From TrEMBL, chains A, B:
Annotated keywords: DNA-binding
Name assigned to this protein: Transcriptional regulator
Location of the HTH arsR-type domain: 1-93
Annotated organism of origin: Anoxybacillus flavithermus
GO molecular function, one term: DNA binding
NCBIfam families named among the record's database cross-references: HTH_metalloreg
Gene3D superfamilies listed in its UniProt record: Winged helix-like DNA-binding domain superfamily/Winged helix DNA-binding domain
Keyword DNA-binding: yes
Amino acid sequence: MEPTKKHDVFQAIADKTRRDVLRLLAEKKELPISAIAAHFPISRTAITKHLNILAEANLVQSRKSGREKIYHLHPEPLTELKQWLSFYERFWENKLSILKHVVENEYPPTFVTIGGFFCLHLPRH
Amino acid sequence: MEPTKKHDVFQAIADKTRRDVLRLLAEKKELPISAIAAHFPISRTAITKHLNILAEANLVQSRKSGREKIYHLHPEPLTELKQWLSFYERFWENKLSILKHVVENEYPPTFVTIGGFFCLHLPRH
DNA sequence: ATCATATGAAACCTTTAGGTGTTATGTAAA
DNA sequence: TTTACATAACACCTAAAGGTTTCATATGAT
């Protein structure tokens, strides 16, 4: 029978250390295990276990280069979290938060008012 | 010293049962403990513990009515999760997803093109 | 060939998570 | 005032989480 993945994305991000590892990999693009461990007060072995859990949830991937195992972020599974969250947004977000979302998370849009329409210019990329 | 909250929102949602409890409360608005427990194959005592963890994370609140303790969803702490997620969105979302987000999660906006500006009309509420 | 380094793997420990069952207490209803 | 019911409070259990240390193995550098 399928070896049923033991850790999902919800469990993977439950631990602060693992969230910190994700953040580190987001910033540094890719790092071998020892370099990751150097950022934390716990043992390399412990970090390896956290990396295994993150890998089970498919939040990180690795390639081997010589004697090093180099990890990088694989953010796609976070979409599951986003979907889960989106269900609850309607319980607390008001509609103005559309603007808030855009303003806070994207390049500053340009606002214009044209004939009673409240518009924002979305730059094309 | 402050009895330092033991469970945060990340840990609270790590457990499937607790996520199911949240979903149930989102649908049913409010329910006493026994009614909640009736939806699950585990004991009422176990559900009470899950509710305590959710309450520590401030994801549920309760009021007492006679001999019943009635719980309801308190979604605000999920904003912390949303903020955490938003950091990673840029690693997998392309910019078109701004539109995607608006279209999927909000009332259909109106699109207009004015003098080279690609605008969308955000209805005011 | 030797030595240092990066990782893997195993054994072990302590605390917490998630569950059980039993008993006690407060409130509603008969 | 009994009786039934909803919850609280314990004591307890097992397995998993998060950590440690030690030893082995593979690879790069001298």
